[in-house]
Amino acid sequence: MKIKLATCAAVALFSTASLAESPTWNLVEVGYGQADIDDISEISPSGFSVLGSGLIGENVFIRGSYSILTDDFEGIDLDLDQMSVGLGYRYGLNETTDIYAAASYEYIEFAVSGFGESESDDDNGYGLTIGVRSRLTEQFEVDGALGYVDIGDESETSFGVSGHYYFTDEVAVGLSFSSTADINIYGVSLRYAF
Q: What count of Cα atoms within 13 Å lies in the side-chain half-sphere of residue 97?
C-alpha cells in the first residue's frame, strides 16, 4: 500500500510540475531590435517596438504593432517606421499548441535627412501570416510564423521565430529573429500577459 501511495504521489508531482498551459494571446510587449541589411555593413538600424494582442471570444484575436528603427551614416539620419493592425483566428491543436492565421493592414514610412535636407516616403498595404505557437513547458513559449507583405509595388515573404520565458504567470522575457530576402532583425523583449 505504501509503495502504491508513493508511486501515485510521485506521478502526481511530476505531472503537475511538467504541465504546460495554452499559449498566451492577451498581452502587451515592448522590445528592442537591430537590423542587419545584406551587402550593407555600414548601416545597421536599431530601435524600439511595442506590440499587443487580445482574444475576442474564444478563437478570434486582434493584434497590432509599431516599431521605429534608426541609424546614421556619415551625417545622414535614416528612420524607418512600421505599423501593423490585424485580425486573426487561432485553432487549438491540443492543450499546449495553437495554429493561427491573420490578415493585417500595413503602413511604412522611410525618412532620410542630413546636411540641411530631408526626404520621406510612405505607403500602405496588407499582410498575411500563418504560424504555430506552443507552450513547451509551463515557463517557455515558442512562436514560429511565415508572413507575406504587399506594400505599394513591393512584396516580401518573411520567416520569424521567437521564444519567451515566463518568470511569473504574467511577466516574460523573449528573444526573436525575423528574416526577409535582404534583412535580418534580432530582438529582445519584455512581455506582460493578462
A: 7
